[in-house]
Amino acid sequence: MDQLLNDFSPGLFFMLLIILLVLIFLMVKFAWKPIMNALNEREDGIKSALEEAENARKEMQNLQADNERLLQEARAERDAMLKEAREIKEKIVADAKEQSIIEGDKIIAQAQATIESEKNAAVADIKNQVANLSVQIAEKVIKEQLSNNDKQLKLVEDMVGDIKLN
Question: What parts of the sequence cross the membrane (predicted)?
Fold first, then answer.
């Protein structure tokens, strides 16, 4: 350090000082503004990137909220459609049951009518058969009774007597 103080030259000092000032001047004139501009641009770029990131985050939150709302609306619509489908199904089942009861009643009524008409036809047929059998029996009995003259006279007298009484 002593040697540095012993070698001190005021001319060299001023020369170095002038070079330093010129260098600072040149730096301020030519390098300072571009460096400051680059720093400002970078700071502005970072701020705008942060703002864009914040806007994107807000937009994502809005989209998520919209998606949730749409999902809830879709669920509500699905539930409404399912409820409506259940109601339609129940109505169709009830209508089908009612229709089957009506058809069943019609079939039963038709069967009863058919049975009644068949029964009446059977009764009429039986009456006809009984009448035919009765006529045949009466015919045989009358033939038997009318086979002889005494029986014929007696029968005619009984019939005439019955006619006079009536």
Answer: 12-32
Q: Which residue has the higher pLDDT, 33 or 84?
A: 84
Residues 131, 144: Cα–Cα separation, whole Å: 19
Q: Give residue-wise pLDDT tens across range 109-142.
A: 999 999 999 999 989 988 888 888 888 887 777 7
Three-state SS for the chain is CHHHHHCCCHHHHHHHHHHHHHHHHHHHHHHHHHHHHHHHHHHHHHHHHHHHHHHHHHHHHHHHHHHHHHHHHHHHHHHHHHHHHHHHHHHHHHHHHHHHHHHHHHHHHHHHHHHHHHHHHHHHHHHHHHHHHHHHHHHHHHHHHCCCHHHHHHHHHHHHHHHHHC
